[in-house]
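Justification of resources, computational component.

The compute hours requested in this renewal are based largely on the per-chain cost of generating structure records like the one below. Each record pairs the submitted sequence with a full structure-token output. That output is archived, and it is also reused by downstream analysis tasks.
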Amino acid sequence: MSEKMKAGLIKHIAFSLITVLICCSSGLFAQGTQIQFGQNRVQYKEFTWQYYEGEHFLVYFNQGGLNLGKFAAQIAEADLLDIENLLDYKLSSKPEIIVYNNITDFNQSNFAIGKEEQYNIGGQTKIIGNKIFVYFDGNHQHLRTQIREGVGKVLVTSMIYGGSLQEIVSNAVLLNLPEWFTEGLVSYIGEEWNTELDNKLREGILSGRYKKFNKLTGEDARFAGHALWYYIAENYGEATIPNLLYLIRINRSLENGFLFVLGNGLNTTIDQWYNYFNNKYNTEAKDKIQPAETDKIVRKTTKNRDYHELRMSSDGKHIAYAVDDFGRFKVYIQELGDEKTTKIRKGGLKTHTLATDLSNPLISWSPDGKKLAIVFEKRARNFVTTYNTETKEKETKELTRFQKILSASFAKNGNTLVMSVMNNGQSDIYMYYLNNDRVEQLTNDYYDDLDPAYVQLNNGYEGIIFASNRDIDSMFTTRNIDSILPVGNLDSALRYQGQI
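The structure output for this chain reads:
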């Protein structure tokens, strides 16, 4: 986290900026909470909305999302000044932030049915007018990124196209900006450059994916645009960003804006960006050894499919993986050295209008490599299927008590799963015993606890290691978001020692 962002948090973290609306005699409940927005999308539960009202934002949350509503209200106020300073532009309206407890709830939203192609779906913050739609994926930093993107989109749209309907219509007709420009800038506002983004850019540059920059669409255009804005800010200073936006709007020309502010035309700037990173990454690649072509696993792939959750059995004989086709998934097992695959599980719903959830399904091998566990969702309920590679037997049971399962892996034996689970707006570590359906909760606080795994070290130590953004190396119980917001890096490895 940059010093500037930290300063914004410290300055605005005081909850005095957030006014809790007290209606009737029920502290957090607002009048008119039984609000229906649209219809026709399948819903598996009723949403009862409550809200916080702050100085600049109105934040809605539903049952089980009290802490998420508090967090969203505080972080939006805290980050607003930083975003306004970056764009040199003040927020003139009062946006509404609608917070969903998880992606499953988000996909049941009835807002703007039939208009999804006009807005950001799948990995991006969804914006409709002054309404910002976000969801919690177990990581508060990701939720913060969505909120920053939403606030940035509202400000950028107002800055470029104006605030009144007449201005918006007029400028939208005369100024047709490419996707990489607007969505890339919003992504840049949302997330600081980091090693993960740098690795993604490295892969795209070295593979030639971003060579034809002006022809990029979708996520490629958005990410390449983010990288270009990062390059401009690093080489010309962040002050050039509002200057570019202002002159592009006044001249209604991308080319003139880049010439006046940067001294280079648009295509020249893009070429400089590409050549800079291409030279950098190719120089770095000279000192690295790439995997041999002969080590590649033979597998036919299909375009526009997501291949994920790749897991190798402990005995090194099999791999298992999931293939996602716009929400419809299939899980396969493949013996190494053989092209033949066996489909173990399928599920999900294929759709081009909902956000894709790549945490559905989750896959894990047992320590002996003979059992595969597949955790998946069906109609907003959680299930686990176990498959025995020797007997070919499958067993499926429902996992109750959990709103959302974020990750799962086997513990010391083939009868216990250790999981990161989302309940009531927080992610915690749980043990689940397959043989008797017993559940044991290991952590219970608002810090993010993700990706647990069983470990056994040479010194005889055994336990569970997981990623967390807690600021102290201990586990304790606290259920409420307070002045310490859980937005630190997931760089703390903690261990739980006990009966595994």
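Residues 4-39, 112-123 have pLDDT under 50 and may be disordered. The chain is about 30% helix and 25% strand.
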